[in-house]
Fold these 2 entries.
Entry 1:
Amino acid sequence: MERDDIIEYSLDISHTDEEGKVLRKRLWKVFWILLAVTIFEVGMGWYFAEHAGFKDILMYTFIFLTIVKAGYIIMIFMHLGDELSSLKKIILVPYCFFIAYLLFIAITEANFIFDIGWVLG
Amino acid sequence: MHNLISLHMSHNTEVLDQKTLWGGGGSPFKVSYGKLMIWFFLISDALTFSGLLCSYGFMRHKFSSTWPSANEVFVHFPFMGDSHVPLLYVGLMTFILILSSVTMVLAVEAGHRRSKKEVQVWMVLTIVGGFFFLFSQVWEWSHFIHGTEIGAVKDIIVDGEWVTQTVHGANLHYNEYGNVLFGDFFFFITGFHGFHVFSGVVINIIILIKVMKGHMDKTGHYEMVEKTGLYWHFVDLVWVFVFTFFYLV
């Protein structure tokens, strides 16, 4: 049986030692960025666990930083940034669309449920 | 970054016209069938996790008055006794997972150079990191299940009757720290993620054995390492969100 996973483009995904050096440098750089963001988050979370205040700003900061981290993981570690833009779109656009829809439904419903004072059990 | 993209693409400089591109025989996305399919699988898996986290947020909003703060639940650190250190342990778990993600992507990079020895080293380190994470999670679950010495007085159902009694820790029926749903979501979501980590470790071990036996040299490329790498990074990606929504906000 002919293998369909080797006839296409998998053989093109290769690079030389010099190119590898550049890529490795980029990967370690991303690691330090992710580590710094995580340490910052833990530090902020720890500090504000004892000191109240800035709750909303803090929450949006954490969510923003999470999306930044997710972007680095998807684009650099999962190599999506290096793929063709058509592939990027078919992966990201449907997902973002469904999540926007899900969040919209969930927030609308949550507000309704909150207002009527529904109690569980 | 842009020159890196062209560097990646430089092996494939021939420009295909629209007819050849979509006429069959080649992938218009310049990825193999398997890699495209693992991406589609990851999208569906990401939607599952999004749904779970969304319902978690829904219930947390609804029961915000009885919802416990993670900073008061997960305050332990190994070898530090009863000291109160919120977030530090889960921060360490995040660090372990990010580190194992880097070792995985370095294995993928070594695979692109067809360096069998380096692929093996990085994959072994990734598997070790995966086990470290799994055991960390066991430790944290165990602390959450056993709870504190003092416990808390809660109304719980015993043999179909509501009774008021002191409970320690949390399970699917009661939760010392607050709302029962917090425990339910915690066990389900971190458990579902932990199961992904576990299966990721198993898949990594299988691929490592295949690499060691020289299967990748026979097919002429290390794309299986890249595919399992995608799954492993996805596990890291999910944890980033679980970490934020369970422990930080």
Entry 2:
Amino acid sequence: MSNPDSSETTARTTPGNFKSAVTGLSDRAIAWIFVAPTIFLLLAVNIFPLIWTIVLSFTNYRVNRPNRDVEWVGLKNYQRILTDNGTWETMQATAHFLIWTIVLQVLIGFALAYLINKKFKGNDLWTTIIVLPMMLSPAVVGTFWTFLYQPQIGLFNYLVTFFTGADPASFSMIGDKHLAPWSIIIADTWMWTPFVMLICLAGLRSIPDSIYEAAECDRASRWRQFWTITFPLVLPFLMLAVLFRGIENFKMFDLVVQLTGGGPGNTTTLTSIDLKREAFEKWRTGQSSAYAVVLFVTVFGLASIYVKALNKVKDR
Amino acid sequence: MKNKKVLSILVSGGLLMGASHLKAEDLTLCWAAWDPANALVELSKEFEAESGHNMSFEFVPWPNFADRMLNELNSGGQLCDLLIGDSQWIGGAAENGQYIKLNSFFEKEGIDMANFIPATVTGYAEWPKGSPNYWALPAFGDVVGWTYRKDWFERPELQAEFKEKYGRDLDVPATLEELKDIGQFFQGREIDGKTVYGASIYTERGSEGITMGVTNALYNYGFEYNNPDKAYDLDGFVNSEGAIAGLEFYKELYDTVTPPGSSNWYMGENIDAYKSGQVAMQMNFAFIWPGVEADPNVGGGKSGYFPNPPGPGGHFAQLGGQGISVVAASEKQNAALEYIKWFAQQEVQEKWWAAGGYSALSAVVEDPGFATSQPYAQTFLDSMAIVKDFWAEPAYADLLLAMQERVHNYVVAGEGSAKEALDGLVEDWVEVFEDEGKL
């Protein structure tokens, strides 16, 4: 609560010229003065580029052809993207990557969180070790997974050999078109499962012990406690983790570029890699703007639907 | 009094402005991050001492070089005053006004393009090709060639086994087919207790790697970029019977002579595989040869060099290398031109060769002592005599990426047939040229 005496003192000690300067300004106007710089920055950095991208998406503009006339091409860029087989192949590759990374990260992340939530000796040390991968740069992770996958010297191939007896040089995780999509899923899962684990851990630790104690009194089995207490109460956290990982992996670029470069063929060319090629290698600025708009609408649409579902779960 | 003060400030300011006109400039030279760039840093110290200008360098690793530098040019950036840009950029940079035209400068300074290796002038300096319009000074001659483990080739037991199997000596291959035989002979062989493989070849997908590799097979089996009598007439030339055979040959090479896991290899990976003793031969640009000679594992006479072998359709090799240009957006063009004038001198070009840079000046490479000056010098000369380059059109990026995708998808991912890949390439390239208004 503010002290009225102190307010009066402040008013008395305010310099006259400042007082006169603000005289006549309403609270609303002063509020606008304070938020205006932020709004201006937001418009300049976020909104203007978005609008400009939408405008460019209807033109044949190419940034590497400054001397060429820019023509209005209507929906041609959108039509080209949506009817291009390559675009749909990259969408499929992205969906494959997205679904499997989320499934694996949620399952493993939740299991790890469940284990770490138990009190045992060295709990803190294990938590630290488990979260190490997510602290690394994706470029670093991509580089050392490249070495791990090396058929001649890679640890991954030797582990597979150890368990299966296959020749380590007989398969190449990043060189085989059937294995390459899995190679990026494994690396991403290794890196980001700790993130899901931390969110799940927060969810698990937010459940009051009293609920479990009540369940114990009712002689509910561990299995029943899990399905009727733990899982429903952690579900909003899990859904939040899925949302974060979904958005992040839809934009996945650095790790995959470092690991496979989008190959072999186009098997690991995700939409962000494809978009970058269109925009900054083929320099089709108009067409890549249309591509960016399509991706934005897709992510925004899916995320909006998902957030509504998340809110419903939270409200239950 | 006050007026006197103002006057003295104005006079001092004027003097300072006059002095600044004469002051040393800070020039930035942009190039790829590789061994020759380090040699150029050393060499440029002489220019700094002579001219008083300061040189800075911006070197970008090869896989990102085109992205980074083309972004710089397209955005009108002033990072680079001098750019040693790839040969294929010349069309776009010339047509979009990103490089300054050097004809009048060459004329004024007595720099004659006739004094440079003709292939490098066409490849690195001219646009349109074959016309006397110069946008760069040939700076670094380069070409794809082969390096091989001479010490392995000379082993009597391997020679005997090879002769028994193929009926000829284990020696530098006379044709691409022979090269494949040698690669297959070494594939999976135990040498000094280690499994080795035939050859490392270019397979990289992201930038230009596989195109720079596959063309060495395509050219020699009959591939043409277009109808020699009708520009941009592609069908039947890009996807001719010979071209299809060439692409099939390259895939067979990938499938049967390369180390496992070499699905995305370019210059760096090939060097590593060779120096670590994994492969008997490597395809790579000539710039690596000084480094091979100096390497403790494979240098000092253990390695040999040979030009890309001929095929049934001819004898060519993929041109590499670059010219040095002055960036139009630079505000220090005069100082940048001074650098080019200095670099074009014969004594500087001789030092450039001695430092590990491949001079394109005829007087240097035609010197009687040149061919024996290094173990790879003759191979360099022979290779430069058979060069062919990729499109240098303003739309080169579209053309290159289409080829990267079509060829990589067939050779590495094994999708479709060679004919389908090249037919698809024709469709892609036709679309690009239609977009460009050339068809």
